[in-house]
Amino acid sequence: MASGLSIAVVGATGAAGQTTLRILEERKFPVCELRAFASERSVGKTVTFRGEPVTIRAIEPAAFRGVDIAFCSAGSAQSKEYEPMIVKAGATVIDKSNAFRMDPDVPLLVPEINAHAARRHHGILACPNCTTIVTVMPLKPLHDAGRLTRVIATSFQAVSGAGVHGIAELREQTLAWARGEAMVARHFPHQIAFNLVPAIDRFGPDGYTAEEMKLVNETRKILEAPGLPVAPTTVRVPVFTSHSISVTAETEVKITAGRARDLFARFPGLKLWDDPAQHRYPMPIAVEGQDDCFVGRIREDLSSPNGLSFWVVGDQLRKGAATNAVQIAELLLKS
């Protein structure tokens, strides 16, 4: 391995962890040592990094001594348990879970949008929810140009957002359908193949799910707009990779569809794909494997004089998780 930093990847066997390893390779992040961690049942197995096998280690304080940056793709409960220990061992943690996102002392980062927030970290930096990242990418240039006053967002979220079990369930149900067999729901509350499930995560007493409230609260924090009204609906769809979001945004200053196209085309990390007459608009199957978010179907809202509607798609395993995390690490290197 090339000279550089000692890097740890916690959750290295999961979908987000595997993508993190791939992104570290692709972006030629300066890694001199890679340490891989996962659940106890995976200890002793291997993952591959730069063509070499890396043995999965047990998570314990001594294993993180000398680590510079740790990418954590574990669940919230595990993150709350392990990450303070990892920071105490001397590493800086980039957390992909929901554990610390709304902690006022933890920056919630999308580097193209609020890189300045990284300067005030105390050992832990948080990645937003994957749906939030894809949604806020086109919202930021609109907010800068016209000041957002309201956002309505409906997400169409791929099964890989639920991890390897979500991917396996869609595949198994699709194969069962092809064989004429019964389709069994194990991971999702209902059949996901050939279906839409408008319920991601648990419901609150107000009828909104935890996933929907992540979109509300995280968008406000990233854009530094604590009072911004956001109306969310999140839907699980039978797509393997890439989340799609239908957005209507209202602004204080009217932004025409033409002006929005110009703003989107010039914003880093966004690609304009907006030629409906030629059937050119973002779709999950075309965006999968890309680090940029793609935006199209841009049109002025018929119901609001200062409203704008558009469709944005992003690979939630890359920009929605691993790429965003590695970009945060690159910010740390620059600082």
Brief sketch in words of this structure:
By secondary structure, this protein is α/β, with parallel strands linked by helices.
Explain what the structure shows.
With 335 residues, the protein is an alpha/beta fold. The protein has two domains: 5-129 and 321-334, Rossmann fold (3-Layer(aba) Sandwich); 131-316, Dihydrodipicolinate Reductase, domain 2. The protein is 32% helix and 24% strand. It has a seven-stranded mixed sheet with strand order 3-4-2-1-5-6-7, sandwiched between helices. A six-stranded mixed sheet has the order 9-8-10-13-12-11. Helix 1 (15-26) packs across helix 9 (318-334) and helix 4 runs parallel beside helix 6 (210-223). The model has no long low-confidence stretch (mean pLDDT 96).
Write the layout of secondary structure elements.
Blueprint: E1 5-10, H1 15-26, E2 31-37, E3 46-49, E4 52-57, E5 69-72, H2 76-88, E6 92-95, H3 111-114, E7 124-126, H4 130-146, E8 148-157, H5 164-178, H6 210-223, E9 230-236, E10 243-251, H7 257-266, E11 270-272, H8 284-287, E12 293-300, E13 307-314, H9 318-334
Parallel strand pairs: 1-2, 1-5, 2-4, 5-6, 6-7, 8-9, 11-12
Antiparallel strand pairs: 3-4, 8-10, 10-13, 12-13
Helix pairs in contact: 1-9, 4-6
